[in-house]
Amino acid sequence: MSEQTQAQTQTQAQALVQPQNQPHHDATATATATATSTTTTTATTTDLANATPQYLSPSTKIPFRPRKIRKLSPDTTDGKSVQTDAKEKPKTTASTSNTSTAKASKNKIVLSRPKPIPIIVARSLSCEGEMEIAIRHLRNADPQLAPLIDLYPPPTFDSFHPPFLALARSILYQQLAYKAGTSIYTRFIGLCGGEAGVLPDTLLALTPHQLRQIGVSGRKASYLHDLARKYQNGILSDSAIVEMDDKSLFTMLTMVNGIGSWSVHMFMIFSLHRPDVLPVNDLGVRKGVQLLYGLEELPRPSQMDQLCEKWKPYRSVASWYMWRFVEAKGAPSSAVAVAAAGASLQQQQEQQHQQQEQFLDPINGILNLGACAWGQ
């Protein structure tokens, strides 16, 4: 075959092949696009980290940060689908939830509330019928105190002196025997023009020299003047003292020079007839508690509140029975009391001073204040 014939044959062949290649190219492009779409969808559904866009060359691929795949949970809230993490545990089914609730109810410990303790509001011991209520309460609250209640007649709290007079009398009787204290108090009343004349202004008008002439020491004279000045300045008054609660009254009265905790407790019991006063520093009451409960040692003042908790709210009346009990056993001497308490030298001096105040014939109605008529 000649060269011309061969050229014509090749030209005809190319013309025949060209129309056939065009549809093939379109089909290939379509198939490629479909495959790319399928690949992209699959990659999005499975792992975006491994997907490579078809339109990027290998040299321009952008690395994707691996991330968790989030899917739509079939559960809905307020009609909207809620997205949950693919790694989250499936929600508990209704049956599982009911089972867990039943187990929790079975294992739950239900604590019963304790019954409220009735609160007794005690009135003044001079109120009608209050002493009977107090004795009935103490008899039921403390079986060990009941024999003493049966043995002695109940105390009576009938008399009442103005607080200023009672406090002044308390200062005058400090560290004195009954006979000596009564003698000085009688002269003091005469100097003031009678008990009705014992007022702050009258007392401040008396000089220390005048008070010493009737047997009042210089120290006690300064105590009396300090009490009168606090009344004159309005820090204290008879009406305020009567209205104060026990804690406030204790704080205010111990601010007066010469009036300590023991004197305040005695004043609250025998002048104001307060029902729930426990003289924790009183040697007679502490000794009575020791004898009543068979304690090896004399209880410390810090232990008295706990030991006498059951007497509330009538600890004043119970204290009165402790004084009666100790009187029947014989009042202990200072040396015996101090040895039993195991006190230091300073404490011994304080307790000796207290005992001189405390055992001035308390059962016969003195107790330095003389404001109570003991039931005989």
TrEMBL record:
Residues 74-84 have a biased composition (Polar residues). GO terms for molecular function: alkylated DNA binding; DNA-3-methyladenine glycosylase activity; DNA-7-methylguanine glycosylase activity. Residues 172-327 form the HhH-GPD domain. Signal peptide: none annotated. It comes from the Eukaryota. Residues 1-52, 92-107 have a biased composition (Low complexity). Residues 1-107 are annotated as: Disordered. GO terms for cellular component: nucleus; protein-DNA complex. Belongs to the alkylbase DNA glycosidase AlkA family. This is HhH-GPD domain-containing protein. The lineage of its organism: Eukaryota, Viridiplantae, Streptophyta, Embryophyta, Tracheophyta.
